[in-house]
Amino acid sequence: VRGDELPSGVDYAVFDAGVNSGPSQAIKWLQRAVDVPADGSFGDRTLEAVLERDPAMVIAGVCDRRLAFCKALSTWDAFGAG
Questions:
Q1: Are 1 and 26 a contacting pair, CB within 8 Å?
Q2: pTM of the prediction?
Q3: Which of 8, 7, 5, 2 is nearest to 24 (CA)?
Q4: 37 Ramachandran zone, left/alpha/beta (phi>0; psi -120 to 50)
């Protein structure tokens, strides 16, 4: 997920999402958060878009998309509370 090139905090959010949902899905959430085509491939265009934005907003965008994904899972009612 090219975490070593991401701003502090964004790196952790994308890494954690990648560990738990797979790198491609994590990258898609990141791409949607920065308004680039979500193809799951982390290229220079994605990195440039991330670096142009406030890291706190990118983190929120990734986390919001991740939470929406989790809430849509059939297991959310059983496991959503932790």
A1: yes
A2: 0.93
A3: 2
A4: beta
